[in-house]
């Protein structure tokens, strides 16, 4: 099984590819999509769409694991994040991927053992779990890998 983990964001979207099965996995690749902070929002969404399609075409994942929406204090931020998630879900669905969603709290609980873990704790545990020499950076990519790892811990064979 090949999983594409996604950490959605309108300025930086993290992605990570993992191979394996329940509780046994390895990292394949990770990165970020940066549509440009100064670009108009519709242009950012288009860049996310196109770049994510390229990742899917290159790595051929079976499953798209994405962080669920959370309640933001700023309504504008929450709406933009929802629009980014919509683009990601559309790309996944149109590419024929199985789509699964995990709450940020469950991802952190799975990776670190604590649902309110800090970014650096998640990065370090992703490094340990994937036996990487250094922590994956930026944190958006580490969060995407963490989302994929979470799927391997919660999927049924």
CATH homologous superfamily (4th level) name: Ribonuclease H-like superfamily/Ribonuclease H
Could you say what the CATH topology is called? Nucleotidyltransferase, domain 5
Count helical runs: 5
Principal-axes shape call: globular
CATH architecture: 2-Layer Sandwich
- Strand proportion, as a percent range, falls in 15-25%
Question: Can you tell me the number of structural domains?
Answer: 1
Structural class given helices, strands, pairing?
alpha/beta
Tally the beta strands: 5
**How can the largest sheet be summarized?**
5 strands, mixed
- Order of strands across the widest beta sheet? 3-2-1-4-5
Helix-strand string? EEEHEHEHHH
Distance between the termini: 10 Å
Radius of gyration: 14 Å
Question: Ranges with pLDDT <50 over ≥5 residues?
Answer: none
Mean pLDDT: 93
CATH secondary-structure class? Alpha Beta
Estimated helix fraction = 40-55%
């Amino acid at each position: 099984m090949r999983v594409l983990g996604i950490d959605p964001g309108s300025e930086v979207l993290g992605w990570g590819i993992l191979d394996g099965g329940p509780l046994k996995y390895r990292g394949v690749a990770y990165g970020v999509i940066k549509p440009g902070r100064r670009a108009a929002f519709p242009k950012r969404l288009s860049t996310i769409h196109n770049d994510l399609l390229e990742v899917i075409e290159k790595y051929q994942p079976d499953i798209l694991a994405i962080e669920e929406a959370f309640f933001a204090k700023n309504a504008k931020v929450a709406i933009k994040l929802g629009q980014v998630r919509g683009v990601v879900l559309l790309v996944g669905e149109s590419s024929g991927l199985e789509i699964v969603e995990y709450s940020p709290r469950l991802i952190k609980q799975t990776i670190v053992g604590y649902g309110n873990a800090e970014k650096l704790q998640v990065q370090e545990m992703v490094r340990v779990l994937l036996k990487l020499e250094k922590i994956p950076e930026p944190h958006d990519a580490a969060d995407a890998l963490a989302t994929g790892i979470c799927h391997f811990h919660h999927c049924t064979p």
